[in-house]
Structure formats: C-alpha cells, structure tokens
Amino acid sequence: MKTSADPIRDYLSAVEREASALPADRRQELLADLAEHIEVTRAERPDAAIGDVLTELGDPRTIAATALSEAGSGTAGAGSGVAGAPARGDVGAPARRGKVHPLVPLLTITLSMPFLMVFTAASDQLFGVLARITGAVLICTSVHWTAVQKTTGVLLAAVLPSVVIATWNLSTGGPEAGTPALLSNLAMLALMAGTSAWLWRVRRA
Questions:
Q1: Which of 72, 133, 109, 84 is closest to 198 using CA atoms?
Q2: Do the Cβ atoms of 14 and 60 come closer than 8 Å?
Q3: Which of 31, 41, 37, 36 is nearest to 10 (CA)?
Q4: DSSP state letters, 122-191
Q5: Are 88 and 46 in contact (CB under 8 A)?
Q6: For the chain, what is the domain count?
Q7: pLDDT tens digits, residue range 32-83?
Q8: Whole-number mean pLDDT of the chain?
Q9: Which residues contact 202 (CB under 8 A, 6 or more apart)?
C-alpha cells in the first residue's frame, strides 16, 4: 500500500517536469511553494484526502504554464492553458508569500532585544515587542523554512524570550537592576541571536 507521501512526490515531480523550461532557482521556488501549501492544507484539514488537496491545487501542466507565463517565457498554448485554470488561484497565496529576504525577519527579531535594552520608555518597549511579533510573522509566512524549523525558531527566538522577560517584569523574583539584569538580557539576546544564526544556516534558497 502506498504511503500518503507517494502522490505528493509524484505530483511535485510532474510539476518539475512540466516546468523544466523555468530557470532552476524559479523552478525550485515553485516546488517549495507547492510543498508548503500542501503541508499547511493537510495541517489545517487533517481529514481531507490527499487526492482532493492535489486536485484543488490544479493540474501540474497548468501550474507550470502559469509559472512560465509569469516568468515571461510562456508560449501562446501555455497562455490559453492558464486562462482555463481557476484552481491555480489556490496556489496564488503561498506563491506570493515569503518574498521577503530571510535576513529581514531574523534581524527584526534579534535587534528588538538591544532596542528594548537601550530604550526603556513604555512606547519604546511596545515598539520593540511589535518588532519581535513582526519578525515572527515573517518567519511563519516565509518559504525559506519548513514548518518544524519555523515553529522551533519562533519558539526560541520570540516566544521564550518574551515569556521570560514578562515573567521577570511581573514578579519579584526577577534579576535585580544593574549587572544581574544586564546579564539576563544578554543571555536572552544570545539565545535569539543563536536561533537566528541557526535559521540562517538551515534556510532553503
């Protein structure tokens, strides 16, 4: 009996074959977008049959034709194929996501910590927190990491430091002002910077 991964592999292979005229980097980006979309859909609808998910994505030939057309290398035949493919709209969302350079969310999250250490006003603190949230959202919507990598990165670089710092600020057992607080903040910064460095190393093109 075939595993549920077999039809996905066959589907992506068919798209790769049909899109062979695309530059290698664009082709790999298309496959990454599709793979992520399938992964997200299966997570949101665990009871959905994989065949239904792939049918909603559209015919591999149509998807390849759309990508070729967008790349400016589509033929007249490819153009007519795109016109008759409403199912391709389901792919549009992941295909348009994650175009932000992977360094942007990593810097946004990491630099939010020294910003909070330097600027202590309430409005500045809010800005730093929003920067961290923005970085986490950009990571979650990026095509440069897998779902597991995204979850791990956001938990270590955004959620855990935020929870720890909030606990310190709301309790009497947090580090005292001065050197203890500075060392604690530097430890959180090291965690965030280390996680960002790991995400940078494991990113996919």
A1: 109
A2: yes
A3: 31
A4: HHHHHHHHHHHHHHHHHHHT-SSS-HHHHHHHHIIIIIHHHHHHHHHHHSTTSPPTTHHHHHHHHHHHHH
A5: no
A6: 2
A7: 888 888 888 888 888 888 888 888 888 888 888 888 887 764 443 334 333 3
A8: 76
A9: 145, 149
* Cα angle value 74/77/83 (rounded, 5°): 85
Q: Are residues 120 and 69 in the same domain?
A: no
> Which are the contacts of 161, defined by CB distance < 8 A and separation ≥ 6?
113, 132, 188, 191, 192
Nearest alpha-carbon partner for 99 in 170, 190, 178, 33: 33
* 53, 78, 96 - which closes a domain: 96
| Shared domain check, 193 and 109 | yes
Which amino acid would we find at residue 84? G
- Of 74, 96, 118, the one marking the end of a domain is 96
Q: Which pair of structure tokens corresponds to residue 165?
A: 């710092």
Domain that holds residue 116: 103-202
The DSSP secondary structure of 71-114, one letter per residue, reads TT---HHHHHHHHT-GGGHHHHHHHHS--S-THHHHHHHHHHHH
Q: Name the residue among 185, 117, 195, 126 with its Cα closest to residue 158.
A: 195
CA distances from 85 to 28, 49, 90, 129 (A): 22, 21, 10, 42
Residues 163 and 192 in one domain: yes
- Predicted TM-score (pTM) of the model is 0.48
85/120 same-domain check = no
End-to-end CA distance of the chain: 34
